[in-house]
Amino acid sequence: MASYAFDEFGNMIGGESSEDEAEQPPPAEEEELSVAPMETDEPEEESRAITLHEDKQYYPEASEVYGEKVKTVVLDEDAQPITEPILKPATVKTFSVLDTTGVPKTAGYTTQFLKGLLDAPRLIRNACLLGSLHCGKTSLMDVLVERAHNAEWDPSKTIRYSDTRKDEQERQLSIKMAPVSLVLPDSRGKHFALHLTDCPGHANFSDEGTCALRVADCAVIVVDAVEGCIGQTERCIAHAIEHKASLTLVINKVDRLIVELKLPPTDAYFKLCHTLDDVNAKIAEAWDAAALRLDLDSEAPRLSPVDGNVLFASAQHGWIFSLESFASVYAEKSKVDPAQLAKRLWGDRYFDSSTGQFAKRPPAEGRNVRSFVAFVLEPLYKIYSHVLGEEPATLKEALLEVGVKMSKEDLALDPRPLLKCACRRFFRDRAAPSFVDLLSQWGPCPLDRNATKVKQHYALLQGPRFDAMCLGDANGPLCVHVVKLLSTPDAKDFVAYGRVYSGRIKAGNRVRVLGEAYSPEDPEDQRPCIVQGVGICHGRHVTEVLEAGPGNCVVLEGVGAHVAKTATVVDDSSDDPCAIFEPPRFDDQAIVKLAVEPLNPAELPKMTEGLRKISKSYPLARTKVEESGEHVVVGTGELYLDCAMHDL
Predict the structure, then answer these.
(1) How far apart are CA 523 and CA 579, in angstroms?
(2) Which residues contact 101 (CB under 8 A, 6 or more apart)?
(3) 102: which DSSP letter?
(4) Hey, which end of the chain has fewer CB within 10 Å, N or C?
């Protein structure tokens, strides 16, 4: 083999020898090479790619196992207690205590019977219950509802049926007006459709009473027999006179004179007389102050048990009576006329047992007690003394003498429920009819009071629509006065509550909602909408009806979104000029401010929407934005704003 020499840089010194060239084989002939396209197989690329540990998939995805439409939740271990479910059931917040079963099966009327009464305006009465705080308006409503449902509630529990909100039940205080429509018979067995409204008694919520007076024809003033006519009662009387409502009186909590104060029957009579005289004095004072301004009659109305516009009650123990209804107890045993006997059971009237006649002077011989004490109060005192003082064995026989049957389970009750049970059964067929007699006699028919209300509150006092409303024409143009927005149970929407003055409102009607700023010259504040439903509110449930005519107080669905506080609903097809009912004039002012802000700034739009609902739900509440950017709620008092913040 040849040896080669290299320089210091590694280059070979000299050229290649000829021997080496000869030893090299000759070059081979070049072959034609066909280049095939390169195959790109993705799995091969993925197999060659580097996969990180956190990207590796050891188990299939949940969507691959259960499907794409199945919602799955993956939680770490011990992320929540074992008592809490991983998937919580869908819950809807409710702010109202509702009865979803509708009209009870035990009620003394059917839905068809109710709808028939709604078409007879002469058998309709619209009234509101006014009074001071804790004077017994809600308990009085319980007595009427219990009779209308033909049920007997647990005597040991306080139902407060018209307090439909949960915070009202917790506070034991009425916050909002509660419309309750009932079908009840009078003492002759004739049924009436009563559209009643339970109004709050607290001074901060007087605006609710103002809205109730707009749809009511009669104001039932409820007075505590012990407290008498206090400042808030005087305020309610003056406000009812401002709305030209008929006045009636219920002296409630008469049982406090017997159980708490332990007054003798004669002293209890004088206390009732003093309360009645005080109420009449306040009525006369408020009447004289408003007579010239409202063009009232020269003489103020005077309330008297003899006339039948005063009732005596103990709503806690379930009894209500008038002089005539109590006289009917004696008429069942002796042939006397209850109406004639009732006229002799009040005032300085004395019964002479020797002659069997009534006289204005006490008899020379015998008992020197007035007839109301002898025939009304003393029997009441005896019932209370028997129930609270006797043993069950003798009590059963004593109550049987007055027609009250008690079972062994009833006699084993505590004294307070036992007393309520005994009084309720004694007055069962007389309590609610006495109240209906009061409204049927002294509460005007809606057709008779339409003209007074329209002339006082309607802005346009002429035209065919005005004439139809004054007459209550069911075939005339539609006009409904919406006075209040009632929140739905989930507090997400509102339904409108108002009174029908003319025409007939039915589901599916195309109507126009005229706001408070509407006028024929500036018709911008109006919204067209479709009525989605018409119902009659019974407090804790609503009965849907196909249509409702003049004189009825109804609940309208699908209208609340277009109402700020009050509105006038008219038909959309009518071309005659129309106006609105003037906004209510309240006897109070919103002067207390409260600044609010969300804890989470991202929830500012939600808070703004809540403030808008607060303004719609509370008649006197106002919400605004100050120059500093603060959101402010303005109300009538501390309790008023506390309830508004609870709703917010």
Answers:
(1) 10
(2) 541
(3) -
(4) N
Tokens of 518: 């509407």
Q: Shortest CA distance to 240 belongs to which of 274, 257, 263, 217?
A: 217
Question: Which pLDDT score, from 0 to 100, does residue 33 have?
Answer: 46
Residue 22: pLDDT over 50: no
How many residues comprise the chain?
648
| Helix orientation angle between 415-426 and 378-389, rounded to the nearest 10 degrees | 140
Q: How far apart are CA 547 and CA 535, in angstroms?
A: 8
Mean predicted confidence (pLDDT) in 176-186: 94
pTM (two decimals): 0.83
- Say what the pLDDT of residue 14 is: 64
The arithmetic mean of pLDDT across residues 117-138, rounded, is 95
Sign, CA torsion 624/625/626/631: positive
Question: CA–CA separation, 495 vs 406, rounded Å?
Answer: 45
Tell me the chain's radius of gyration from C-alpha atoms: 40
Backbone angles phi, psi at 456, to 5 degrees: -85, -35
Token pair of 59, please? 């188990």
How far apart, in whole angstroms, are the C-alpha atoms of residue 7 and residue 633?
A: 103
Mean of pLDDT values over 499-519: 93
CA–CA distance, 561 with 616 (Å, rounded to integer): 10
pLDDT at position 29 over 60:
no
Are the C-beta atoms of residues 434 and 322 closer than 8 Å to each other? yes
What is the identity of the amino acid at 196? Answer: L
Nearest Cα neighbor of 317 from 439, 225, 396, 426 is: 426
Give the three-state DSSP class for 557: strand
